[in-house]
From TrEMBL:
Transmembrane segments: 6-22
Binding site for heme: C441
Protein name as annotated: Cytochrome P450
Gene3D superfamilies: Cytochrome P450
Species: Microctonus aethiopoides
Main subcellular location: endoplasmic reticulum
Gene Ontology MF: a single term: iron ion binding
A GO cellular component entry from the record: endoplasmic reticulum membrane
Family according to the record: Belongs to the cytochrome P450 family.
Length: 495
């Protein structure tokens, strides 16, 4: 009798668990929104959870499974998430009705991941005043002031390339070193020495942040999908040395500048000024930890996005010699006017360079998806689809920017997609590599200039070609949230 009762109890428990897991699975169907069929515990993201695909590839597959669908409903385990494909609705979310989608919806755990409380992730209450106060450091005027620092790093890059010419190299590693040096001097006022020293602590930290080992993968998945569990066990998954490095670096740099009355008018100085005048950001306290988090995101965004764009561009130039030669011709013709000296004005005049960088960002957006979370109940205009506060929105920019409807022959690298006539012929929201609206990438202007300076310096005295290690298929790392090549970006550098 006891065995029967135990069996009935277990069955009842399992049935209850099953219905709990599928409790939301009719949500998108009730809204007349199409989407893949969810399964208990996994929702529609089983392939993501088991790292079969990266999020870029997963969203592209879903996008292609439901062609022409303006919206697609998916589930992260049991949570409904809306994928937006319609250009007008994307514009509504990012710009017109931004007040209803201020948050990115990124989960934060400041107890275990204090450095994640940065401008990219912050909720509206802290994001808005910080964004307003930090914007001045990214203006064109400030960029012009910092330009000589970029050139100093570019000259170090040229010296480095002279030592590896005629060799097959992972250019992704080289551009990461260059970008690390740029961020070190522009954000921290320090020499990172990533190009000069293979043991550079800044380069080591950069590698550590984006390392796709089992521990980082587990940390990311538990943090994203089971925040309560992460709160319990996160201490054992995070790299405390990484957190401490940036906290100590921030405190030491601030202390040194105060003690020696150093004013560089850079990112740290701006943060120090905000901290000294807390009334200017309302009731938000700019703690040492929050300050370190802003420097941390400047570091990771500044070196990762720019270095990947540079290396991806060089990869395409190695494959497409006509484009490579045309770009080198433009660069050298412009530099001949200044005796080979790279100037701010000269970079701005390089039209084909701008098109080539845009086409690289089109084909390889560093962050393949834009995420938002509704901060109010919302009904999408001209539809009957209504969502509650807290609903997550994903905009699959990698899929959109590879859609032949907007970019014919999308796998072909063609900078002429960004001549003025071509731009005007397609919807504005089809190119979103830096986002759009009030919460677009604050450092987009800096990132573009850093990328262009690096490319100009490389192509001024060198050219690139494929080598035996070049992965022409550009296989993506399925464990990375960012658009990351699995096999590096190997090319031959030729002087």
């Amino acid at each position: 009798m006891e065995t029967v009762e135990l069996f009935i109890g277990i069955v009842t428990l399992l049935i209850g668990l099953y219905y709990y897991l599928i409790r939301n699975f009719n949500f998108w169907k009730s809204c007349n929104v199409v989407g893949p069929k969810p399964i208990p515990f996994f929702g529609t993201i089983k392939d993501l959870m088991f790292s079969k695909y990266s999020i870029a590839v997963y969203l592209k597959k879903v996008y292609e499974e439901f062609p022409n669908a303006p919206m697609i409903g998916v589930y992260t385990r049991s949570e409904p998430v809306l994928i937006l494909n319609d250009m007008d609705q994307i514009k509504n979310v990012l710009i017109k009705d931004f007040k209803s989608f201020v948050d990115r919806g990124m989960r934060m755990n400041e107890k275990h991941l204090p450095l994640n409380a940065h401008l990219f992730n912050l909720e509206a209450k802290r994001w808005r005043p910080l964004r307003t106060k930090l914007t001045p450091v990214f203006t064109s005027g400030k960029l012009r002031e910092m330009f000589h620092l970029l050139i100093e790093c570019a000259n170090q890059l040229d010296d480095y390339l002279n030592r590896v010419e005629e060799m097959s190299v992972d250019v992704r590693d080289i551009t990461a070193k260059f970008a690390t040096d740029v961020i070190g001097v522009c954000a921290f006022g320090l020499q990172a020495n990533a190009l000069a020293d293979e043991e550079s602590i800044f380069r080591k930290m950069g590698k550590l942040i984006f390392k796709t080992d089992w521990k980082n993968i587990l940390k990311f998945q538990i943090h994203a999908l089971s925040p309560r569990l992460f709160d319990l066990i996160g201490h054992f998954l995070v790299d405390h040395g990484l957190n401490q490095f940036f906290l100590d670096l921030t405190r030491d740099t601030v202390e040194y500048r105060r003690k020696n009355h150093i004013n560089r008018h850079d990112f740290i100085d701006l943060l120090m000024a905000i901290k000294d005048q807390p009334n200017k950001i309302g009731d938000i306290e700019l703690t040492d930890s929050l300050m370190a988090a802003q420097l941390f995101v400047f570091f990771i965004a500044g070196f990762e996005t720019s270095s990947s764009t540079m290396s991806n561009c060089l990869f395409e130039l190695a494959l497409n010699h006509k484009i490579r030669d045309k770009l080198r011709k433009e660069i050298n013709e412009e530099l001949s006017k200044t005796g080979g000296v790279i100037t701010y004005e000269g970079i701005k005049k390089m039209d084909y360079l701008d098109k080539t960088v845009n086409e690289t960002l089109r084909k390889y957006p560093p962050v393949p998806v834009i995420m938002r979370k509704s901060t109010t109940p919302y009904t999408f205009p001209e539809t009957k689809v209504s969502i509650a506060t807290g609903t997550r929105i994903w905009i699959p920019i990698f899929a959109i920017q590879r859609d032949p409807k907007y970019f014919p022959n999308p796998d072909v690298f063609d900078p002429e997609r960004f001549n003025q006539d071509a731009i005007e012929s397609r919807p504005h929201m089809t190119f979103l590599s830096f986002g759009d609206g009030p919460r677009n990438c604050i450092g987009a202007r800096f990132g573009r200039m850093q990328t262009k300076v690096g490319l100009v310096k490389i192509l001024q005295n060198h050219t690139v070609d494929v080598c035996e290690k070049t992965d022409k298929n550009y296989e993506l790392d399925q464990n990375s949230f960012l658009l990351t090549p699995k096999n590096g970006v190997y090319v031959k550098i030729i002087k």
